[in-house]
Design goal:
Chains A, B, C, D: This is Ergothioneine biosynthesis protein EgtB. Chains A, B, C, D: Pathway: Amino-acid biosynthesis; ergothioneine biosynthesis. Four copies of one chain form a homotetramer. Chain A is an alpha+beta fold. The first copy, chain A, has two domains: about 150 residues, Up-down Bundle (Four Helix Bundle (Hemerythrin (Met), subunit A)), CATH 1.20.120; about 210 residues, paralog of FGE (formylglycine-generating enzyme) (Alpha-Beta Complex). Chain A is built from nine helices and 13 strands. In chain A, strands 12-11-10-13 form a four-stranded mixed beta sheet. A three-stranded antiparallel beta sheet of chain A has the order 7-8-9, with no helix packed on it. In chain A, β1 and β2 form a beta hairpin. The radius of gyration of chain A is 22 Å and the shape is globular. The two termini of chain A are about 40 Å apart.
């Protein structure tokens, strides 16, 4: 657990980071929601602020005056009903509150939080909530990047976000197969550092021996799969995957475009030539699985990944695993409102391990369990093979 | 047909009006599209400008340089494919081009148009297209009001548009039944003034005798219908209407809210007490029809309305008629791109006659044929009864 | 109005006809419902029988014992809720009651009806309901043919219904254009013979002069339209029609198949070569309209058709008109349960005039107003042109 | 592996069983398909027969003459396209081939198979396919029971199947908690007896210690959950489960009806009083999970179930586990067409262990891995708790 002083530092840095990420946007970019799982940037900025006001200031800062009791509820995750007036709506339809209002709201809450963390010596309980709040906002920072990419990358004008953000880290080293011996291993979060509830419940796992690649699959390798007809061979795909690629006419990773017979990739720096040496990204679990079938190999389980990860580089792509997202053997759902955080998603999702180019500082660790539905592609996903 | 000088005046006034309507908006309000038939205000501003550049300047202003050939296409009504790069999208997902960009685009095109109309003596053909362009923009001005109302009125914060716009004109006169004798009447546009293709084809119509109310149905009368269980009596409704009210849980006009047991109505001035004397609005054809059934009366046909209209006040509500939208007996679809304008909508729609509080100056006339699907309610619709 | 004796004859003939139509079916053919607007033949047989028991025997035959009070309700048109046990279902899911049960039910009700019509001298009121019941069953006979065609014609084995039913009557006469003079005409049902409520309200109509073809459009002519790219020219189509043909990949009339490069048509006699001289059928209003646009002509209104029909042959195809289905000027909705019969469908439908090869004996007349949604094709529809 | 003689016996018994199950049906019951995952009984009878003709007779019986080359393809699982004539359809729309045809087809194929198995000494390869074919047909026998229950139980007349089939075996013994010690266990199929590919790959699994109930959860216990508001407490449910119960208005197990304030259950013997001591059935994984949450317990993993199962009675309900359906560590997808059998379903499904009252003789074993989507309820599902 961090000291109050360190936590204050983490809080300040986290709040500033969210605003820095959005500093490259036009006002209009904050507003739209092109698909359901992408949220408007202004909602991310408001929601992460509401979290601190709702769970910290309201509870632990006596006499705290709400910034605006009539408005903040729109930043709850579920805000369908308010008092007697019920309006069904969704995030992408809301032009109000404005972006300027949200920045004022942020400033107000940030200031009050700094006051709280500076003036008083707080108990462990509030400190813990502040820490969760910071990590919660860091999760939303990753979503900010990927949602912004979706918003700009699906605009027919292909506007760029900025020139600095680097999506594609080249792996300039040789392929090697890292061997792990059969045996009983320990899985789960061990240290006192922050982690989510779903990483807890340290437990033993029996692993058969396996070999895992030190490199992620690249754009060039994935292009071979496309050119070999991988998207057309029903035997490589799960039954649900096959329906999905037919219905959505999927035949390449997201953000790939064939323009005048040459392959382009939309990145946060704009539309660029596809780099065959960069790790492939924006692929679904289904596509990662089909590629592995085609190679006669498979994806790692999350436990295999966790045990092997010390021996390879990771951190530029969230890596799909074969593991369905389930509770660890000793999983205990936390009490109270924060208890909803992870457990309720433990069905029909696949675990991803690692971190990505969009992951915030201090927000990646080897036991982190990310999870998405198997068809989703808007994150910086990737994969490595096991044989 | 207007003189070139008058047309220049009409053009200037029209362009200014669109911008004045939007002057009360925040940037965010220009962007969202909460339902399919509501367009973002920025799209209206861009589309009406694109119209003048595409159909006037490109054709009749030699050497005209396009403001931005890579961007303007998004303001075409159908812009799904562009060259080899195809991106499916819709208007409410587009954060770019920005509002500022669109105002620059407007300024450029407006200036070029004024130059053209000032410096040269133009032929009838371009003048005619300019006139259509002005009326086209006036139609979009009406849509701007109703789309803005939808955007703000479906926001849970119920923000107001401004304090000036008056939606509800009280009819402070007694109900009278205006009688029209059986006989042959002439229907359609007669003068040389501007009208749309669908009003042309002056023709004779045999009308049976009828009596029509000099007053629109009011909120108070409609409330009686609600309280008498009108929304629950299947015998009052068309079969398709019944399905529609069940599936959408329709039990009151749009923008009505029951708050703490008293009826409120969202207006462009914000949420207000329902005025029982104001003409009811934001009702579908289905609801107008069911109300008439309940009263043992009926809606007028469009020809009955056209013949009787001289004897009553109209202009605050678009009035539903019983008439399906069909071509007049001598209808000729215009040649070329503008030929698509009206004919292709002549199925499954009902005619509305009159004009509304949102109709632009110089844009209402007794022969005007508006049309919408029978379930739509976002316009300032209303109705009067015939017996 | 028919005498009781003649009505008895009509009743017997009608009941026998329904069973004769079904005599060519296998038990399995009675059960399925491939699309929503096609009902299983066993439902038609049960529903027409339920009508006589519910509206005649229950009311006018004192002491009538219901055949089975627990079962017959499934033959009501709307049977979603029964007592406290509510089961949502639809007609094509119901394997029970069995076909054998339904024939027993028919026999019981037919016998009781014959008793009633034979033994007593009935008042006008019950006689009128019996007459409506017979015409109601005749309507279902037409639907039996077209629903059976749908069921068999959409089976990949293309089974035939029988060898006798003749769908395609060749028009072996020359094309002529019949001229009707401008003037006031009388529209609506005049005689004392049976008609539906929607034909009543004799009224005057002013018609402009027009010329109408004495021949229906043929398969050969429609093939020219296809080969000229008619299905690909957006300018020929209503906006809603264009969406419909895109979404449903419509590019030919229903039941047409191109097999080994030659055109076949599924008929009730099985799959056959397309006869270019037969009148085209199973086309939607949208397709009829687009064809007329392509020819530079139009469809007749229902009044034009009614006035001109004495001068041409009709009766093998229901003919699409340009008229939307609306009440006649003096239309009065009948009182009571039978009042729902026609009025509630008077929106979003187009009128068809004439009759078809599937129309029952004594069930066609020049004032008959049939109506369907503009995209429907499973009836024996056709059309003729006006210029 | 069975001897050829034993296999012949298994084959005969299996073929006879399918027909005995259907002997209680009316012809109409064979035809309908009320929901997508329920197949018409006639399809099951045809499909299992097609399997033997396609994979055994065609390959291993030289000179075999197909019963009907134009028809049998409709019993392939995927029969959308045939030669050049493509008709989209689904199983429940097909009235042909008839039930009588299918029984003739069965007789022909059964006779030819018996000839083959009687006259020749066959190799291991064909014998293996025959064995799979028998087990394949046994799987369809279970589906026959549950599909028939769906067809009859969703008919508003609640017809019974027969009087003999016993759904509800009472567990007349006390609740006990069986303890399993922490340690490494062996998982997977061991013997030479028949099993599916997904059970192979014997491997070690580390289990933490746990206690599992010797009894299935009963109707009475589940009723307590309902009465305690279990279906209304969002905290008990997965996020996707909550959406599912809202959208489908789920508030009780399938086939339960509250009639005149008392609970009834539709069974294959007709509608009966709910027996509180019978094990609950026709519940989804979501409901089993929510019940366990409510009790503060959990469902077993499939490995826990497999290790503990020797110590409790099972076989009347398929039992939901917490395990997602994934490949075993050493899973190898079989070569060829039969390789599609299991692997392609290994995503988004939960494993069920045990067997049910509908499971065929010789078709249950402790390593059998059944799997369904978490919302499905038409099987005889149940569950037991772990703490």
């Amino acid at each position: 657990m961090l000291s109050q002083q360190d936590l204050l530092q983490l809080f300040k840095e986290t709040r500033a980071d969210s605003e820095r990420i959005c500093s490259f946007l036009e006002t209009e970019d904050y507003v739209v929601q092109p698909v359901e799982n992408v949220s408007p940037p202004k909602w991310h900025l408001g929601h992460t602020t509401w979290f601190f006001e709702e769970f910290v200031l309201k509870k632990y800062s006596p006499g705290h005056e709400l910034y605006d009791k009539n408005t903040a509820y729109v930043f709850n995750s579920y805000y369908e009903s308010v008092g007697e007036k019920v309006i069904r709506t969704n995030r992408g339809n809301l032009s109000r509150p404005t972006v300027a209002w949200i920045y004022e709201f942020r400033k107000y809450v940030t200031t009050k939080m700094i006051d709280l963390l500076t003036r008083n010596k707080l108990d462990q309980e509030p400190l813990k909530v502040v820490e969760i709040g910071c990590h919660h906002e860091k999760q939303h920072q990753e979503l900010l990047y990927t949602d912004i990419k979706y918003i700009l990358g699906n605009n027919p004008l292909s506007p760029k976000y900025n020139d600095e953000f680097k999506e594609n880290r080249i792996q300039d080293f040789e392929r090697e197969w890292i061997t792990v011996e059969e045996g009983v291993y320990e899985i789960g979060h061990k240290s006192d550092d922050f982690c989510y509830d779903n990483e807890l419940g340290l437990h033993k796992k029996y692993l058969c021996g396996f070999s895992i690649s030190n490199k992620l699959v690249t754009n060039g390798e994935f292009l071979e799969f496309i050119e070999a007809g991988g998207y057309k061979d029903v035997l490589l795909w799960h039954a649900e995957a096959w329906d999905w690629i037919q219905q959505n006419e999927i035949n390449k990773p997201a953000y790939w475009h064939k323009v005048n017979n040459s392959w382009k990739q939309y990145t946060l720096n704009g539309l660029q030539d596809l780099n065959p040496d960069a790790p492939v990204t924006h692929i679904s679990y289904y596509e990662a699985f089909a590629f592995a079938q085609w190679k006669g190999m498979r994806l790692p389980t999350e436990e295999e990944w966790e045990i092997a990860q010390e021996k390879f580089e990771w951190g530029s792509r969230w890596e799909w695993t074969e593991s369905a997202y389930s509770p660890y053997p000793n999983y205990k759902k936390p009490e109270g409102a924060l208890g909803e955080y992870n457990g309720k998603f433990m069905v029909n999702q696949k675990v991803l391990r690692g971190a990505s180019v969009a992951t915030s500082r201090h927000h990646s660790r080897s036991t982190y369990r990310n999870f998405f539905h198997p068809q989703l592609r808007w994150q910086f996903t990737g994969f490595r093979l096991v044989k």
